[in-house]
Amino acid sequence: MIKENIIVGKGTEYPLKGILTLPDDTSTPVAAVVLVHGSGSSNMDEKVGKLTPFRDISEGLAELGIASIRYDKRSFAHGFRLIRDKSQPVTVKTETIEDAILATEILKKDKRIDAEKVFIIGHSMGGMLAPRIDSEGGDYRGLIIMAGTPRRLEEVMTDQLEESLSAMSPLVRKLSEKSVKKLTSKFDGLYNLTDEEAVKVKIGGGTTLYYFKEMGEPPVSYYLEKTDKPMLIMQGEKDFQAKADKDFALYKELLKDRDNVTFILYENLNHAFVDAIYDSVSMAKKEYSTERHIGQTVIKDIAEFINNN
Description:
- By secondary structure, the chain is α/β, with parallel strands linked by helices.
- It has two domains: 2-150 and 219-307, 3-Layer(aba) Sandwich (Rossmann fold), CATH 3.40.50; 152-217, no CATH class.
- Helices cover 42% and strands 19% of the residues.
- The protein has helices spanning 53-63, 74-77, 79-84, 92-109, 125-138, 153-166, 170-184, 195-199, 209-216, 220-226, 244-254, 284-287, 296-307, and strands at residues 2-8, 16-22, 30-36, 67-71, 113-123, 143-146, 202-204, 207-208, 231-236, 261-266.
- The strands form two sheets. It has an eight-stranded mixed sheet with strand order 1-2-4-3-5-6-9-10, sandwiched between helices. A two-stranded antiparallel sheet has the order 7-8.
- Helix 4 (92-109) packs across helix 5 (125-138) and helix 6 packs antiparallel against helix 7 (170-184).
């Protein structure tokens, strides 16, 4: 495979280091994917603990003749500057969407890439945003959603916090309940607030309530219903962040009449699509602290979807 260092957003206020990974043979233009991160600050490999899912996917796809572009997330490379930019609040548009579209443009302008065969792979929150990124300028051949959810971000976050509480010892739970309730109560009446009011409510880490409002209005389901692009919805059975029985099931319900949507549920895989060890969000740190890699089954399923569309 061939790896080339690139800059996403070169010449902008927020340039991002990235890697374009190509198969050895580009004598004819090849299909390609843009990899879009989940929530939080992530490097180009989407490294969490000892896992590197985006590197696994990029290198695995290159071996199967498909190119990819991955890059540091804006909040990873320019976190403090992003928060201090008083000209606009931090949103998923400024943190994620703008850079995904810039990365897509790099691929489409590269003569080694088939501009008509560029796909998006969104993981976790990136999966939630994939239909919106497509709608707002990505214009992909198809969408691959890994461990996403059609629910709103604040709903998922509230569920995860409540699950973490339930796993605590009685004493620790009692000490933590008040702070969790204080945080989640901020979401009450979220969509009745004006943008100006939402910007004033701090959530933490430089994030305001407007981050959630802007992302949830309109909801993910709006973009899913709007698109007729081919979609591959992928989910790990043992994922304790996006749930198979809730999030994956909701995708299946919303898209049940679409003959161009493929659903794959992987036995015993977690949120990062590697073999699961634990089964609770409270064990996330330990879950991701053991080195594992995405297996060939997942990589081949992605490649097959791309090649067939």
